[in-house]
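Apologies for my clumsy wording, but are you able to produce some protein sequence, whichever is easiest, and the tokens describing how it folds?
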Amino acid sequence: MAGAPALLDRLLRGRVWVAMIAVLLTGIVFLNVALLELNGAIARTEARVSELRGENAVLRLRVARLGSSERIRRAAEARGFVAAPPGEIGYLRLGAANADRAARALERWPSPSAAAGPAASSTP
């Protein structure tokens, strides 16, 4: 057992110990560089997420404006559509008689270009 301190002393003062320390320090440096690269990638990803959230907010606002029932009503009226009175709206049961009735009603329906008048026919 008396030789153990002498062996330890030789290891700590030898070239092997210096090489081990150099390898460990090099590993720590590479680990820090990899961590910095990872942090940069995370920062870029978070910036893109923030940008996409802003775009989504703008698009949601646009969808809300376009989906407004008042805007849709005005656009339909501009194209010649008329809202049906509430008592005239109903559902048809599935059957040949109702299909014939619906086909006849569609034949009587004016085309959008005829309802809009001459202004609609001048547009390409």
Summary: DSSP finds six helices and no strands in the chain. The first helix runs from residue 3 to 13. Confidence is low (pLDDT under 50) at residues 119-124.
